[in-house]
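Why FxsB family cyclophane-forming radical SAM/SPASM peptide maturase? Reviewers of the renewal asked for a concrete example.
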Amino acid sequence: MTHHPVPFSQFVLKVHSRCDLACDHCYVYEHADTSWRGRPRSASEEVLAAAAARIGEHARTHRLPAVHVVLHGGEPLLAGPARLRRAGELLRAALPEGCALDLRIHTNGVLLDRRFCELFAELDIRVGVSLDGDRAANDRHRRFADGRSSHGKVLAAVALLRQPEFRHLYAGLLCTVDVENDPVAVYDALLALEPPRIDFLLPHATWDNPPARPPGAGPTPYAEWLLAVHDRWTAQGRPVPIRSFDSIHRTLRGRSSLTEALGLDPADLVVIETDGSLEQADSLKTAYDGAAATGFDLFTHTLDEVARHPGMVERQSGLAGLSADCRACPVVRSCGGGLYAHRYRTGGAFDNPSVFCGDLMKLITTIRDRVGGPAAVPPQGGPRGPLTDAQLDDLATGYGSAATVAALGRAQLDVSRRLLAAAGAGGSAAWDLLAELDGRAPAAVDAVLAHPYVRAWAVRLLAGEPGADTGGLAEIAAAAALRAGHPFTLDLPVRGGALHLPTLGRLKVGGTGETRLTGTAEGFSAGGHRIGWDQPGGPSWQPVRRVALPGWTVALEDTDPQRDSHRWAPAPRLAEPELLAWSGALREAWELLGRDLPGYAAGIGAGLAVVTPLAPGPDGRDVSAAARQAPGAVGIARPATAPILALLLAHEFQHVKLGAVLDFHDLFDPADDRLFHAPWRPDPRPLEGLFQGTYAHLAVTEFWGTRVRAYDGLRGAAAETARVQLATWRGHTVRAVETLAGSGSLTALGERFANGMRDSAARWLDEPVGAGAQEAARAAAAENLAAFRTTAGH
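Here is what the prediction returned.
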């Protein structure tokens, strides 16, 4: 079988090849490989430029949506600010349009100071720090060459990263496991530093040089150590992502791993040394001298050539690349044979289980037994999603052009068709009529199936919800036939004394059970009522009423029985005065959206087909909602002012858009069942709820931002309210984006969305609001956090 290499998306760029610490567990200087001795101390301008050019070329060739680059060493801070700045500038300039750069630096922290942090803030470089726990644990290995402790300097570096102005740069902590250290003390020390992520790494070892196992420690000391941490982490509600544990939980559910050390995902990482050499993963340096070498370099070889190197191919071959013992193992899909370097044995190369095999087996099976058995592995591959990369990036910012939202709508129509087939196929007169119409008048069928509450009915029926019945299929077929002018006769259910025709309206016939409906090209009749398209129909016929505005026509849906899909109760049929009030409010709100929120208005005009009036909220509160299974609809209780209606429309349609994206793309690990702090709510939220709220509040932030600009220089209650609202919502949204980004559960696309949301929210951070508004926002955030901690039991 021909091997098609996986494109590289992760790059380790060595900017300095020496270190200011003398850690005795370092794989670069303390293990088998000695290649570092012959390499330049720093990467030259030529090497940096060639690295950026090759990465850009590779991204362009493979249309990569993002690349991840880690500035590494040695100790990369020894390269100095000027060289690090140049590396960042060259990398950003070389990438093609549409390819995001996730740029990070991994450091021991000894040299990290404000000067570096200001540079990293300017260039958006996230910082990971190596730290092995409390002072006693860290000093066991991580000392200066003269024996001095590095712990105090590292803590000072982390303290700098935890300051508000640099907190967004703090990428996490990396800890190498030493089983002679107290696992809980190490974990507690790291957790106290509030990292957005922790990585626990097994020490590098091979069958030739096995890991240390203290006397009397038992056969699996590394598993026991990690399980002690896992127990405490779980008991605390998983307060921070831990990549090895999250990867095990994911792979047990058939998902991808987050680390090369676990799972069967193909390796997609290449190392660029200071002389321009292209190498395999640094961990191979622990196997034998030259194990990581490929013989390729930046100046004469493309990255595609490197991807075809036998060592790279071996690390991308999944199950087929493992030893026979591994392939027969019951936990192989989680373990993946362990880290490739840890399989090495003289005479057998890498065709062996990991030297940590027993520990990995114990760790994975214990976690598996505690969380339940593995879920079914989801199907791999499948059709490409409905959106292009450019459209996904468009949506990631919170916006969405008319073309992008229309593409989402077409995809949602396909989902509704498939749901309808699952809910109604087989042998009924209604199904036969729909099948005939789909051939004769597909546009009429599509017009009905695109109605948001058709999907709501199908989902309810398939879920077996009380009150959901197959009569909905007859209603759908009758509505499509009437739209097509196709003659038919069908029995329709009577609900609340009326026959319901999705997208058209309802006919009040009285009674219960079923009533026969007859349709022709001129109209329809049922229960003694005759409705012609050329006449009003009288009080028994209640058509769906639409508000036609420049660039947007929207239905005010007050007849469909499925409109109760929203959190709040729907309003009854609107009386004429209320209908006029709604029409006027929508017209004003639409004008305001087009003027102040054009980036959101375009998508609303293309994709929001239905507004369902809701009953007034308790105590006169403004209430609104979007239903995941009713795409294209929002529910709103008409507020007192048109600007608030505009705000509610923009806010709720954000939920509609993101829900549609989630129908086709994973933005995060759906198996992650942790709860998170949402700055606008006192109760903990699941990951999807936090993502939805953050995405919706991008529109809220921009709404108040435009209001603040409109009130520039003006005083008064309205102006001050706008300033407080902007200060509050921009703070909430930025904090929530960072929580998402630090969750450890985002997919590559989810990270693109997080970056897009971060950029959109950041546009409003420098908008002046005054000290009073800023203080009110801080107080509200503190009050919310206190309520959250009380609710969550912290």
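The chain has three domains: 10-233+266-316, 425-541, 580-792. This is the kind of structural detail the renewal will allow us to pursue systematically.
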